[in-house]
Amino acid sequence: MPNLNQNQNSDQSPDFQAGQSIVTLTDDLGYSLPCYVEKAITLTDSGLEYLLLLPVSAPIEIFSWQDDDDTLADIEDEEIDPLFPSARAVLAELDLTLHRSAYTLTAVGNIPEAEDDSCFALEVDDEGGTDNFQMLAQFYYREQRYVACTPLEPLLFFAYRTEADQVALLSPEEFERLQPEIEDQLFEGLD
């Protein structure tokens, strides 16, 4: 199976995303997330520059196995801290370095090629929407089994450039309000 993971080369090698500018998102906790600017547009009515961003490093998600029905469940952000050392150790065995980043965990290193048996779809909403993931490693913490995964589709962020030339993430409400204006322009030419 060809590797569908858009973030598979997360080492910032010279031939990956060559020539694209990089900006940094920062969250309320002070974590940062370097991102490639995939697309930038300026809306004439507000004069603000809106950006479609792709993380430089591979996004990582951790799920817990629910033993009663052998399904995966999302974990809350506050659950990450105690799990982080175990997740970091198991990913280090794959030559991946796990980082606490803004808005998502990330790993630096080359993501292994996706194999059919390491890929799965996870239902993400009540309407039956799914996201596809590549399972990287499993580990235990306090007798609970977890899995570290990376999404197979690109993890994209919508942001804007502030008047102080900082980059800030659009809130879901702001994105919903601006979506008709910016979506066509941002996705034009992206495939």
Care to describe what's here?
The longest helix has 16 residues, at 172-187. The chain is 15% helix and 40% strand. The chain is α+β, with helices and mostly antiparallel strands and 191 residues long. Strands 4, 5, 6, 7, 8, 9 and 10 form a seven-stranded antiparallel β-sheet that branches. A five-stranded antiparallel β-sheet has the order 1-2-3-11-12, covered by helices on one side. It has two helices and twelve strands, in the order βββββαβββββββα.
Question: Which features characterize this protein?
Answer:
191 residues; alpha+beta; seven-stranded antiparallel sheet; five-stranded antiparallel sheet; globular; disordered N terminus
Q: How would you classify the helix and strand content by structural class?
A: alpha+beta
Tally of DSSP β-strands: 12
Separate helix tally: 2
Q: Could you estimate the helical fraction of the residues in percent? A: 10-25%
Strand content: 35-45%
The Cα radius of gyration reads 18 Å
The residue ranges in which pLDDT falls below 50 over 5 or more consecutive positions are 1-16
The largest β sheet comes out as: 7 strands, antiparallel
Spatial separation of the terminal alpha carbons: 20 Å
What do the pLDDT scores average to? 84
Order of helices and strands: EEEEEHEEEEEEEH
Which shape, going by the Cα principal axes?
Answer: globular
